[in-house]
Amino acid sequence: MSYDLHGKWDIGNEWLDPVLNSYTNLTEITNALDLIWRNDVPSDKVVLGLAFYACVFSAADPDCMDPGCPFVSGGNLRTYSDEVGILINSEIVDIMDEQKLSSKLDKDAAVKILKFNTN
Questions:
Q1: φ, ψ for residue 31, nearest 5 deg
Q2: In this structure, what are the phi and psi dihedrals at residue 104, rounded to the nearest 5 degrees?
Q3: How far is the C-alpha of 71 from the C-alpha of 8, rounded, in Å?
Q4: pLDDT digit string (tens) for 44-90?
């Protein structure tokens, strides 16, 4: 699985800190695939998957909202996703339209980052 690498489930995890990291990150996926290739797993046996939703977070500090900054909870639930910390694509588009926002591309991680509301 090439998604859900990070999310609200990082809170209380002994191996990961609850910090603002993308739930899908090309750098981390590449590192994980390296282990698979070194163990001679045939590429036709590997399925990565594609998520049509995003993990969202409430930052601990509105002045620190970059990757690696701490978060305190998943973002607020919305009407259709109906789950704390998860937004489906149409909800993201609605937020961008309502608040007249655009996302920022992190080229190394191959993810788009959208900051909205105050945290």
A1: -65, -40
A2: -115, 135
A3: 9
A4: 999 988 888 888 999 999 899 888 899 999 888 888 888 999 999 99
Residue 61's DSSP bridge partners are 64
Torsion on CA atoms 22, 28, 68, 21, rounded to nearest 10 = 10
Q: Which residue has the tokens 């993990």?
A: 55
Tell me how crowded residue 4 is: count the other CB atoms within 10 A of its CB. 13
Strand boundaries in the chain, DSSP class E: 53-55, 57-59, 71-74, 86-88, 104-106, 111-113
Structure tokens at 13: 């995890």
Written as six digits, the tokens of 76 are 């607020």
User: What residues pair up with 27 in beta bridges, in sequence order?
Assistant: none
